[in-house]
User: Fold N-acetylglucosamine kinase from Thalassococcus profundi.
Amino acid sequence: MNDTTPQTYLGLDGGGSGCRLAICDRSGRRLAETRGGAANYTSDPDATVRNLRAAIAAAAQEAGLDPAGLASCVAHLGLAGIMDAAQAATLAAAMPCDRITVTDDRPTTAAGALGSRDGAVAAVGTGSFVAVRRGESLRHFGGWGLRFGDQASGAWLGRSALERCLLVWDGLSDPSQLTSEIWQRFEDTPARMVAFGATSSPGALAEFAPLVIDAAASGDAQGRALMQAGADYIESCLAAVELRGDEVLCLTGGIGPHFAEYLTPETRQRLCPPQGSALDGALSLARAALDGDIAR
Amino acid sequence: MNDTTPQTYLGLDGGGSGCRLAICDRSGRRLAETRGGAANYTSDPDATVRNLRAAIAAAAQEAGLDPAGLASCVAHLGLAGIMDAAQAATLAAAMPCDRITVTDDRPTTAAGALGSRDGAVAAVGTGSFVAVRRGESLRHFGGWGLRFGDQASGAWLGRSALERCLLVWDGLSDPSQLTSEIWQRFEDTPARMVAFGATSSPGALAEFAPLVIDAAASGDAQGRALMQAGADYIESCLAAVELRGDEVLCLTGGIGPHFAEYLTPETRQRLCPPQGSALDGALSLARAALDGDIAR
Assistant:
């Protein structure tokens, strides 16, 4: 061992609403754990670099790392909005750690939720993706954003619910408690709903998801149809990989666990609580990289 | 008859890509026909007022109308993006004609396509709506915009096609000539498609509709499924009113006629070419108002 042997590792989970990171020593003890600003590279690359550098500097100070110690710290950053290797490389080059891996948040979410188990994670919050791990291989479904994807997500549930409200208005679908409740929020005025639709962010649409979830839980036909459509999307991903043996399924994110009761009995038997968060996953991936460095 | 009896009428059809208008004398002779700038009130109310005033002034000059003649001209304006009576009233008050009716473009499209016939119009371009007329009653479906509606529209076909491309990428749907052709346009790079999705207007999405139409015509399974889904939406509107007797169906707009072969045989028997354009419809509604004024 010489003085460039890494003594610490850093894990970071980031997205549009902020980032969380931790630095650990080789024994796994957390030397620092902190939060930072928004880090969605697609939405704002410059702010992402700025916020991540500030958050990492704050954590390094808390952990007592000098610049050389930070440079040799092995890091894994999992960030929503990283769409390809070129973006990952650009971002990595702007960070103060030399031994750094940048990925989107699917590998870190899978590593955190599954731990060492094989199986699938359906991560469903404002957006959505499904990740399936078998040994070293990791396969992803979705994560493409609301315009052309994010099936089953909170934003997708909200958008789908408002689409149904307008079908109900036109007499093409049956009204329900859910559609009436949503119409009340728009004062029974299609112009208000349409104006909202013209400018609403995925986050604003996702604010309707709890109404859908609650209505469905109460037996509301429109709510149940929406939740079932989301669950069917998750099932289609699982069917594409044919989960087998004792492979597990973790439902994560603010919306994910609510799909449990709409899955097939066979799929439900695989449900397991996630072992950890995406930050835990980023830490475990950084730790594995550090162990690899030392073994080399 | 005194000197305030209207001697002329004006019809106007407007939307995001411009407006067309004509002024006729009481015998129906066109004194002026002209085009003007964009007139989607939802997108830009100030520009709409400005462009409409300029277009109407140009037409009045061409028709040889002095300010008093223009003020007494009976006008009907049918404009995309007029969502309610309040918007219509605000816009009407800003126009130089005193006897003016402002509606969205559904009544003018129906009046133009159907003439004096009863039946339905499926108007499908970048956006979509279905209008059904029976005698004096007019019922509308859709026209709510792409976020929560516009089923079967060019923008909806384009968005749906790109959504399918990403499902194909994930192995959740079967590739076809259509999806391969679209992927080539994005250099087989999901990040490019997602970036396009984040900022694309309905018009930009609608540019993919001709690919869908052509692929479907060649028997492409993905293309046919999309066209069938659009046709099914149109059928659902017709089913809600149960077309009967000799009620006709007109397919209008750049996309509408392409749905003919995906409709049921029963519905296809009702197909008739539109009798006229939305401008013709606006003129006929203005003419009817003028006749009503005179008869009063």
Notes: The interface with chain B takes residues 42, 83-84, 87, 140-142, 144-145, 147-149, 159, 162-163, 165-166, 170-172, 189-191, 193-195, 197-198, 200, 236-237, 240 of chain A (CB under 8 Å). The CA atoms of residues 84 and 119 of chain A lie 24 Å apart. Chain A has two domains: 8-111+277-295, 116-274. The longest helix of chain A spans residues 221-241.
